[in-house]
Amino acid sequence: xxxxxxxxxxxxxxxxxxxxxxxxxxxxxxxxxxxxxxxxxxxxxxxxxxxxxxxxxxxxxxxxxxxxxxxxxxxxxxxxxxxxxxxxxxxxxxxxxxxxxxxxxxxxxxxxxxxxxxxxxxxxxxxxxxxxxxxxxxxxxxxxxxxxxxxxxxxxxxxxxxxxxxxxxxxxxxxxxxxxxxxxxxxxxxxxxxxxxxxxxxxxxxxxxxxxxxxxxxxxxxxxxxxxxxxxxxxxxxxxxxxxxxxxxxxxxxxxxxxxxxxxxxxxxxxxxxx
Length: 275
Hints:
The chain has helices spanning about 5, 10-30, 45-55, 60-70, 75-105, 110-120, 135-155, 155-170, 175, 200-215, 220-245. By secondary structure, the protein is mainly alpha-helical.
């Protein structure tokens, strides 16, 4: 079978869709986020919020695509990391430098600020470019991929489903916090409760590996996919409309991730912004 014949064009289409969703999320925020981080009044902002809420599955889709193709890692660890370095780390460093230069050209900083921004790249970004958080998350998953690969290689279907069930529960933790503010060992001195290590974006990679192994044959899954997309959109829409867009710092944060896998949003005891 030739490479052209074996290519999965459905996954290519999924990449294109995820790219559009990322653009929609970032461009659409200007149409519905009002002062104070709440959803603006009126019909058009409400519809923009609904569309953006549905599109916030873009990052999990990208992570699942990575897991689909990467897990389990079968090449040498050194070769695996070398390939990732060339494809991800080098472009990331280049863009961090370009962002620092851009801020100088637009008058937001001076030459010393540019130099300081470049020197800070190994610590956390180069300048204030928070949307590149995705790269740090992805690099963290790449670092862990060779570690989890032996388990994925030998795990039974029941074992993978057990892990995914616990991981799926952690996605609901922000909503459980609406009823139980502290759960499974959480307290003011402990933000790493019992299922903490099952949470995060790694679950999406394992889910993709599971689907590839046991559900790769063409099936009529689109109904379930659309239904889950709508459910995710409704949950995010509820968070925006009820509690607005509030980042960490306004209250104590939980290390349990929301539906998107991120951990930078307030605990739902004070406001659910799981986006």
